[in-house]
Amino acid sequence: MKRLEGKVALITGAGQGIGRVTALVFAREGARLGLLDKNEANVKAVAEEVKALGGEASAVGCDVSRKSDVTAAINDARSRFGALHILVNNAGVTLTRPFIESSEADIDFLVGVNLKGTIFASQAAIPHIIASGGGAIVHDASNAGLVGRPWQPVYGATKAGIISLTKAMALAHARDNVRVNCICPGSIDTPMLRSALASSGQFEENWKKTGMVIPMGRIGTPEDIAYATLFLASDEARYITGIALPVDGGRTAGVAEVSHLGMALPK
Q1: Among the options 155, 156, 193, 232, which is catalytic?
Q2: Checking CA distances to 19, which of 104, 140, 227, 229 falls within 20 to 30 Å?
Q3: Neighbouring residues of 23: CB distance < 8 A, sequence distance ≥ 6
Q4: Given this model, what pLDDT does residue 196 score?
Q5: Is residue 239 part of a domain?
């Protein structure tokens, strides 16, 4: 029996990186998928990958920071598949900017996608999940929501907001048979991370420095996050709700965050 057989799952930010890999993992486990992403071409390509695996998927271009867009997309997926059991709020953006230099536009960008997008998608999905007999919501937060990152203060604040939202939603909907949890990834090998590490023109050096501060000694893979998400979305986690699960190679286990990109590499 596949772990998501008979389930309908909706994944935001499914066009690349963690969202794309999560879609492929969920498809292999039997889920039918509604895939959302702001980049319509990317998300349609992922839907074709799912179909090549023998799965079923729809793809919609959608800006999660616009409530009307995300509500319409989720309602469409529910109508198409006849049910909705799982929501993965993966859509997210990052920005590295000193606190006092963070502009109003920077703040609106981060809050709009990371926090408002998570809220809007959840508000739209929860009635459908309840009507389908219950299920699970998994938010992608960040370990930046658990510890301070001096180089990403506003980003970290939005992710801390997702962690608080997770706990409140879990309590509010426990009796509705809707479990709500979140994943707190660390540094994961995605286009977003690679772009950030390359922005200074020193990608290779920054990649090595990032690996140095991870106790397990490596940057994570999208699969590391996708399989943690699969567990929390599956019935195997049926008695788990309201948690923030770090998946970061031990980085937030006790070592304080530092601005490691300014450190010197060992000789």
Answers
A1: 155
A2: 104
A3: 11, 14, 33, 35, 46, 49, 50, 57
A4: 80
A5: yes
227 part of the active site: no
**Domain count for the chain:** 1
Is 102 part of any domain?
Answer: yes
The domain containing residue 22 runs over which residues? 8-187+222-246
Q: What percent of the chain has pLDDT over 90?
A: 79
DSSP type of residue 266: P
In a domain, residue 66? The reply is yes
| In a domain? residue 1 | no
Span 58-111, pLDDT tens digits = 999 999 999 999 999 999 999 999 999 999 999 999 988 889 999 999 999 999
The b/e string for 248-260 (b: 16+ C-beta within 10 A; e otherwise) is bbebbeeeebeee
Q: Which residues contact 91 (CB under 8 A, 6 or more apart)?
A: 12, 13, 19, 36, 37, 38, 64, 113, 117, 118, 121
Average pLDDT over residues 153-162: 97
Distance CA 142, CA 183 (A): 7
CB 158: neighbour CB atoms within 10 A?
28
